[in-house]
Amino acid sequence: MSGSIVWILLAFAAYMGMMIVIGARYAGKTKTSEDFFLGGRNLNGWVAALSAQASDMSGWLLMGLPGSVYAFGTGQAWIAVGLFLGTVCNWLFVSSRLRRYTICANNALTLPAYLENRFHDKKRMLLLVSSIVIVIFFLVYTASALTAGGKLFASVFGIDYKLALTIGAAVILVYTFLGGFMAVCVTDFIQGMLMLVGVLVVPIIAYFFVGPENVVGLLGESGVAGGASSYLNIMEDSGSKVSLIYIISQLAWGFGYCGMPHILVRFMAVSSEKELKKSKVIAIIWVALSLSFAVIIGIVGRAYLYPTVLGETTETSAENVFIELITKLFVDDLAWPFVGGLFLCGILAAIMSTADSQLLVTASAVAEDLFKGIFKKDADEKTVLNVSRVTVVVVAVLAYVIALNPNSSVMGLVSNAWAGFGSAFGPIILLSLYWKRVNLPGAMAGIISGAATVLVWDYLPVFENGMTLGGKTGLYSLALGFVISLVLIIVVSLVTKKPSDAIIKEFEEMEKMSIE
Predict the structure, then answer these.
(1) Among candidate residues 187, 151, 169, the one with its CA nearest the CA of residue 55
(2) Cα(472)–Cα(457) distance, rounded to whole angstroms?
(3) Could you give the CA distance from residue 293 to residue 205 in angstroms, rounded to a whole number?
(4) Is the peptide bond preceding residue 307 cis, with omega within 30 degrees of 0?
(5) What is the C-alpha to C-alpha distance for residues 433 and 88, in angstroms, rounded to an integer?
(6) Which residue(s) pair with 240 in the sheet?
(7) DSSP one-letter code for 463
(8) pLDDT of residue 40
């Protein structure tokens, strides 16, 4: 083992050890299911903001997005534009109202419980359906994070992908199992800071190593489709003009935010309106910087790594551009392997910060909503907490099995799960917060139609050679699923019985409520 690898390994060991210590620290403070799922609703502004954004971006931010830009050009940045707009709208229009309404709605601890309480669903069908949707799509989402972790370890240490996958999954599992929500949020805060430093510092140093005057020339020499001018033109992708469907599909990623359970749960856990206002500013600045520099990583990485072209002159995929950039810059050129190891931990941070949140929300759906809510209503707090922890283990194992395929695309897995959540929950969350006429039948119609649209659009092979509707049309399933769900919620709500006076009164109380 080379000296450089030893230093990188030490950086990884120190980082992962710190995450486990945090989990152990909060294990003793996690006494109830509310502690495990919402940390007692006691998040401050900084932790809420950075944990929300870190859990949102995942390995996609430092692997999927830079890899797409590296391979195809800045036309891929339309996704970043959509995500930025979605983040801003989510914090400005959803966070405060959702925090207030979850308290009004019988102190709901989870998203399915909020929906059940919001619509006074006595038969608990809304709870059942929304919990099942969460489990299905979070299995895919968690698998994407574990896949990214496996690729990181395999690339850096040259070890077998399956062994690498096992190591990453084990560390995430340990601190989530032990500490619950507060452990996840505190680790996510640290991870969010580490991600931001890495995404800012690495491309800036690489840019000056390349030389500002050399970037365009090196891009052209690397063989980008259409030449450097096309590669740097946001209106072109892979050398061709982007279509209207393409732009709509990329911008539609922003719709996903208001339906992401692992992001929305942060809004529910903020301690006060004052802290929430602080969170909005911090989160919006963080995401603007992170997305912008993730795109820059793809561009600078293409120039800096040339004559190596990932995916063409090597077996390493374009999604590893940030890994390769850090390795060459800090190990080969600067000879600072420990610093390089810390920046590589930023990628691990992006991966872990999402996987832990996904495990926790899935556990809440199973333990709090399905187990206690439907199957064993008299379960005590200790039993629910134990079921939650068992669920964390089971979901991690199932996601691990899905991620065993080393050819899995981080971008592809994230795309499908993001569309599923955005279509199923996005429209009903928005309308439940802003339209008092929306009712239970409308909510059911929206969740089912949104989830079903994504499953049919992305997974059902209706054409020759197994091609799906999404593959044939090029339209992102979230764009279609969100619209179908929104329309059905409105239509079904209007043609069925209006909400009861009690629901209307609760809605009006929410609008006047303060969480100071």
Answers:
(1) 187
(2) 10
(3) 12
(4) yes
(5) 17
(6) 237
(7) S
(8) 47
- Whole-angstrom Cα distance, residue 17 to residue 349? 13
Tokens representing residue 5 in the block:
């690898």
Which letter does DSSP use for residue 333 in this model? I
SS3 132: helix
Q: Are 251 and 85 in contact (CB under 8 A)?
A: yes
110, 280, 266, 295: which is closest to 199 by C-alpha? 295
Structure tokens given for 398: 């199932």
Round the average pLDDT of the chain to a whole number and report it.
83
82/62 Cα distance (integer angstroms): 17
Contacts of 463 (CB under 8 A, 6+ apart): 469, 471, 472
Between the alpha carbon of residue 101 and those of residues 65, 109, 157, 231, 500, the distances in Å are 34, 11, 48, 46, 17
Q: Which residue, among 245, 216, 247, has the nearest Cα to 231 in the 3D structure? A: 216
Angle, vertex CA 139, rays to CA 137 and CA 143, nearest 5? 120
Measure the CA–CA gap between 253 and 76, rounded to whole angstroms.
Answer: 12
Helix (H, G, I), strand (E, B) or coil at 103: helix
Tens digits of residue pLDDT in 126-155: 988 988 888 888 787 778 777 777 777 777
For the chain, residues with pLDDT lower than 70 are 1-3, 23-24, 26-48, 50-52, 54-59, 109, 172, 175-188, 191, 271, 315, 350, 352-354, 356-357, 406-411, 514-516
Instruction: Give the whole-angstrom CA distance, residue 361 versus residue 138.
Output: 8
DSSP element (H, E) containing 29:
none
Closest Cα partner for 488 from 460, 458, 448?
A: 448
Q: Which tens digit of pLDDT belongs to each residue from 433-468?
A: 999 999 999 999 999 999 999 999 988 888 877 788
Query: 300 near 70, Cβ under 8 Å?
Result: no
Q: Which helix (H) or strand (E) holds 163?
A: helix 161-210
Predicted pLDDT of residue 409: 62
Nearest Cα residue to 90 out of 279, 272, 273: 279
CA distance 344 to 324: 10
CB 302 within 8 A of CB 222: yes
What pLDDT, in 10s, does the model give residues 433-442?
999 999 999 9
pLDDT of residue 193: 79
Give the span between the Cα atoms of 394 and 127, in whole angstroms: 21
Spell 394-416 as b/e; 16+ CB within 10 A means b: ebbeebbebbeeeebebbebbbb
Phi-psi bin for 388: left (phi > 0), alpha (psi -120 to 50), beta?
alpha
Residues 6+ apart with CB under 8 A from 15: 342, 345, 348, 349
Q: Are 359 and 36 in contact (CB under 8 A)?
A: no
Cα–Cα distance, 259 to 79 (Å, whole number): 17
**In this structure, are residues 58 and 149 in contact, taking their beta carbons and an 8 Å threshold?**
no
